[in-house]
Amino acid sequence: MKTPKRLQPLLDDGLIDEVLTQLMSGKEAQVYVVRCGEEVRCAKVFKEAKQRSFKQAVQYQEGRKERNSRRARAMAKKTRYGQKEQEQAWLSAEVDALYRLAAADVRVPKPYGFVDGVLLMEMITEADGHVAPRLDDVTLTHEQALAYHAKVIEDVVKMLCAGLIHGDLSEFNVLVDADGPVIIDLPQAVDAAGNNSAEAMLERDVNNMRAYFGRFAPELLDTHYAKEMWALYESGELHPDRQLTGYFELDSHIADVDELMEVIDDAKEEEAERQARIRGDDDDPDAPSY
Ligand SMILES: Nc1ncnc2c1ncn2[C@@H]1O[C@H](COP(=O)(O)OP(=O)(O)OP(=O)(O)O)[C@@H](O)[C@H]1O
Ligand SMILES: [Mg+2]
């Protein structure tokens, strides 16, 4: 195909040898299939800031640390240069996340670098070499749904242990290859420790997966993996190989509330009796007098 303008510099530098086709265009980026020597890879070209949508919201960026201090100072100043640096930081968030997650043994596309706003990464394929389908495009058996769900939960736990929450996890951002689910699309990844929305984002991600796999294995709809893993994470007991149960004592709160209500009711009754006695309108002759 004709080389898209944004990929020309990579072609000129010899980082890619040929642009083969374009995959479907997402909301945030265009993804191309490219040839690098003998290998076929994906090149994700991010759209300009103004064309992008929700993922750049402040909510996602809270707690992100800028390791480059010159850039951090520029960003703080909100000058045009600062905005450019901010944009650069945003764009490199996905490649940073991919390197971190690959190191944490999470199944994500292997990153091959980030050049001129283009992310080069492993293309996830089916056994025959064709580009892998998204989770949303496949029909699962009951067993597959349970196995894939377990794998995604395992990966979300490893991500959380590496300090990250996906933030936009859904059946559209998980591909399926011969070995199972592969998580993609991470520019909005959320800092688990420094972001006030972290717990809510984790819950949304995990519950999206529960709803999707629950279509094929309805018993998953009764699980509470998000709450279980967040509680373990907060108490410092979550580690990458931790086996979860999907069970979380939601009911204990209700039991506690019931108990509390009984105590309150008893106290109210006692107080009413006391008031009645003070008013002297207790006409029970057997009642003790004070
Ligand atoms: N490494 C990869 N291997 C194979 N296909 C990929 C890969 N990365 C992306 N794709 C394909 O390109 C599509 C768009 O990629 P991605 O989700 O990363 O971009 P996006 O523009 O942020 O999407 P969204 O519409 O979710 O905002 C994916 O749904 C998937 O089909
Ligand atoms: Mg996507």
UniProtKB/TrEMBL annotation:
Q: Where is the composition biased (Basic and acidic residues)?
A: 271-280
List, as start-end ranges, the regions of compositional bias called Acidic residues: 281-290
Q: Which SUPFAM superfamilies match?
A: Protein kinase-like (PK-like)
User: Gene3D superfamilies from the entry?
Assistant: Phosphorylase Kinase, domain 1, Transferase(Phosphotransferase) domain 1
Catalytic activity of the protein: L-seryl-[protein] + ATP = O-phospho-L-seryl-[protein] + ADP + H(+); L-threonyl-[protein] + ATP = O-phospho-L-threonyl-[protein] + ADP + H(+)
Which superkingdom does the taxonomy of this entry point to?
Bacteria
Chain residue ranges for the region called Disordered: 269-290
> Which keywords, in A-to-Z order, does the entry hold?
ATP-binding, Kinase, Magnesium, Metal-binding, Nucleotide-binding, Serine/threonine-protein kinase, Transferase
MF term (GO), any: metal ion binding
Q: What is its EC number?
A: 2.7.11.1
Q: Give one Pfam hit by family name.
A: RIO1
Family membership, please give it: Belongs to the protein kinase superfamily. RIO-type Ser/Thr kinase family.
- In its UniProt entry, what is this protein called? non-specific serine/threonine protein kinase
Taxonomic source organism: Vreelandella azerica
User: Which lineage ranks, top first, belong to the organism behind this chain?
Assistant: Bacteria, Pseudomonadati, Pseudomonadota, Gammaproteobacteria, Oceanospirillales
